[in-house]
Amino acid sequence: MSARSASGSVRVDGLRARTARDSRIWVEGAHDAELVERVWGHDLRVEGVVVERLDGVDGLAGRVAGFGPGPGRRLGVLVDHLVAGSKESRLVDGIDGVDDGFVLVAGHPYVDIWQAVKPASVGIGAWPEVPRGVEWKQGVCAELGWGDPGSGWRRVLSGVRDFRDVEPPLLGAMERLIDFVTSDGG
Known about the structure:
By secondary structure, the chain is α/β, with parallel strands linked by helices. The chain is built from six helices and four strands, in the order βαβαβαβααα. The protein has a domain at 24-116 and 166-182: 3-Layer(aba) Sandwich (Rossmann fold).
């Protein structure tokens, strides 16, 4: 039987990372980048895909324009809380390049990437409800007795071994983004 990577794909052993493509995948922040590396890092190195942090999606349209997507230079963007009517959905509406096929924005419905980790993987029954007006990570850590968000994140990330520890909407979004930036146009 072939060895599998954390994403579930066939692991390629002894292969040096491919030279980076001009195409990129952007994620919102440090936790998103760490989780993507944990699950898809092997695959991304095989394919030569660089993941870069945005540190939020405010100003995304300007950053996309500055990137200059086009033939051979595709851009995939992973966005938290990409649901109808959200601030995030309004920010990504009408980004140049999407209609041309050079930019793909994919997301998941979770308020934060932490929520895309299955609760059982971090030893809880469910993610707590955090009242509006309370910063989500602070509220989660307070409710679960996890200390500060740095400690909470270490606990969340340590619960992720492979793709089975994350929710299907995140899996689907990342697979679409990887396929998009590695296709013939990427």
